[in-house]
Amino acid sequence: MSIEEAIDFRERPLPIDDDPEAAVMQIVDEAAALAASDIFFVTDPDAVHVLVRHMGSMRRLHTLALGDGRRCMNYIKTASDMDLSEKRRPSDGRWVFIGPSGSRRDLRINTIPTLYGEDFSLRMLGRDRHGDDFQNLGLEKQQLRDLINMLQTPGGLILVTGPSGAGKTTSLYGCLHFLNDGKRKLNTIEDPIECEIPGVRQSQVDPSIGLDFPDLLRSVLRQAPDVILIGEIRDKVTAQTAIRAANSGHLVLATMHAPVTAGAIRAMLNYDVHPHFLASSLLGVVSQRLVRVLCPKCHVPIDVSEAPDAFADVVNWLLPGQGKTIYGPKGCDSCNRIGFSTRTGIFEVMNIGVRTRGLIAEMAGERAIADEALRNGMIDFRRAGLLKVAQGVTSMEELMRVIPAEYLGSER
């Protein structure tokens, strides 16, 4: 989306004159009030635009004069202990922001040189959000039970998959909070550490000194953890070491990029993981997307009672009365005229049973593994999405925007 296409949210005056700190504080405070996930400082020839990503869409907060914008960006670098003189290379930093009300928020900073100067990205991570999210991620009751059963297993591998921005980190941190009962030793390997969790030993990769995921993982294994979280499996060494750790009695949680649950198994095999070791260690796969939740104050009811088959595939999971009325977005002052108020997850949760382990060991195709999971009662993306629509959580148009059409068909 271009700058011109971004939709204005508000245009409150900023206290720029000789006080970039106050201006940045106001920007972060405004973004936090909107529950934005990211803040962007985008440099053009004669201005710096401040944008936010709100529920997956770009919105404009402010447009600053070039000098004012650069003063704000310099302040962010200073607060993040970043090198002010380095403007030619991408750089990363971290800032624990304390708002006017005393609320604390972790900001993950990234800068990149562009044609007209540096652009900044600030990922906003609320320190309080992860602990309460596990029961409210958007999992259906059956899916939540399945995930809890996986987490209560003493050893094995759980994979969480999905594209960037799908909420994988929130899900993994929720799992860590669930496991963090003081009876187990929990270690993480992250890039970077996105949120501090008391009681969890967190380590961060550092490419500048050659410290990457495989090196840290080998060292963490010598720390005798019960649970290991790996921020992302992205190479053969990390994948193979994770499998060995899971087979040796550790509970390993990891993310990777795969479109659906069965695709994660194929992705692991593509890293030359031994299929028998993968089959014996894999507990399950969670795949997810984020959809916008309809604003409860202005959503528009649509009667579908005369189409009784619309939700036939999910009727067994619906409560009495659900599926007869669905809703669409309208827009009001409460939701900033966009018709949606927040976001929630849509999930596939695949339990790895005996027959599925056999298919993995035989290096069966994705379709065969997915079909077996469906026979075992897995709620796939199509059914999970239909449930959210029938429950009035989101709209059919939003579902089709987020879930690829190939996964919404009745046959996969």
In short:
With 412 residues, the protein is an alpha/beta fold.
Description:
By secondary structure, the chain is α/β, with parallel strands linked by helices. The protein folds into two domains: about 5-125, Beta-Lactamase (2-Layer Sandwich); about 135-405, P-loop containing nucleotide triphosphate hydrolases (Rossmann fold), CATH 3.40.50. Helix content is about 30%, strand content about 25%. It contains twelve helices and 16 strands. Strands 1-4-3-2-7-6-5 form a seven-stranded mixed sheet, with helices on one face. The chain has a seven-stranded mixed sheet with strand order 10-9-11-12-8-13-16, with helices on both faces. Strands 14-15 form a two-stranded antiparallel ribbon. Helix 7 runs antiparallel to helix 10 (about 365-375).
